[in-house]
Amino acid sequence: MLQGTLLRGIGSFYTVLGEDGETYTLRCKKKIRRERLSPVAGDRVRFVPGEGEEDGWLEEILPRTSQFIRPPVANVSLMLLVAAPVPSPDLLLIDRLLVQCRMQGLRSLLVVSKADLDDELAERLRKQYRGADCPVLAVSAKTGLGLEEVREAMRGEICCLAGQSGVGKSTLLNALLGTQLETGEISRKISRGKNTTRAAELLVTGGLTVMDTAGFSLLELTGVMDPVTLKDFYPEFLPAEGRCRFQPCLHDREPGCAVSAAGAGGEVDAERLARYRQLLQSVREAWKDRYHSS
Ligand SMILES: Nc1nc2c(ncn2[C@@H]2O[C@H](COP(=O)(O)OP(=O)(O)OP(=O)(O)O)[C@@H](O)[C@H]2O)c(=O)[nH]1
Ligand SMILES: [Mg+2]
Ligand SMILES: [Zn+2]
Fold this sequence. Notes:
Elements: E1 2-10, E2 13-18, E3 23-28, H1 30-34, E4 44-48, E5 56-61, E6 67-68, E7 73-74, E8 78-83, H2 91-103, E9 107-112, H3 121-128, E10 136-138, H4 147-154, E11 158-162, H5 169-177, H6 186-191, E12 202-205, E13 208-211, H7 258-265, H8 270-288
Parallel strand pairs: 3-5, 8-9, 8-11, 9-10, 11-13
Antiparallel strand pairs: 1-2, 1-4, 2-3, 4-5, 6-7, 12-13
The site of magnesium ion has 3 residues, from helix 5.
């Protein structure tokens, strides 16, 4: 039996990159399907290679370290959150994605792309995310700025890119990997309808392993979350945690809130805190509705 990583599944055939560096086309044992465990890109699998004209068989899916439903992908360990000067950055989306990553135990890196158009955004975000345990890197696919640093951060990880449509994810991937993924002018994309869904696929090139980005701009907080747990995904709140007048404190507008004080004093970034409260509001609403939505 060999071990490998599932790159993609098309119909009932699965492409697996074996530990020996060879690529195998496999079929999936019914047993696995019966266990309602559909193999997805990123899965570590054990398999028996085929002989001659025979198909090989995928025998076992090893436990997953992380899992996303849309797109279906397992074992991602590093998320590249991409923001750019154009389209203007949706930092609430970035914060949402950051929470999502932390819930799954992934590390994240904030990549500020198109740095050739604006050299201040990265600095601004570096300041905002200083306490957020999320490094910020400025890159430009156009000039090559920062590409080597991003590659360095990606080595040994299964990576994913996420971010608004048009921030340059595909262009960045092409620059990083030397691939030819489809990129587009923002206006053209919107007019023909973005977010074309297709099967997720893992690309492996030059020692880097990354999901092609189909669908990841859609990534959202999945399911419902107890509002009181949202603050646990904000590392910058930690120094003030436990020092609020009321316990538990959601750091929303409660009197005597130490996180509010830290926001006013500049120890916690005021904009991150304001967006936390926006996010908290939507988490609260989803929580209130949790028995109504099926
Ligand atoms: N100036 C400049 N433009 C860039 C850079 N990277 C991407 N662009 C442009 O930004 C536009 C969108 O790039 P894409 O790579 O298609 O964006 P995307 O994030 O993949 O978009 P979706 O696939 O819709 O999610 C294109 O017109 C690119 O040419 C860059 O580093 N500098
Ligand atoms: Mg794209
Ligand atoms: Zn508080």
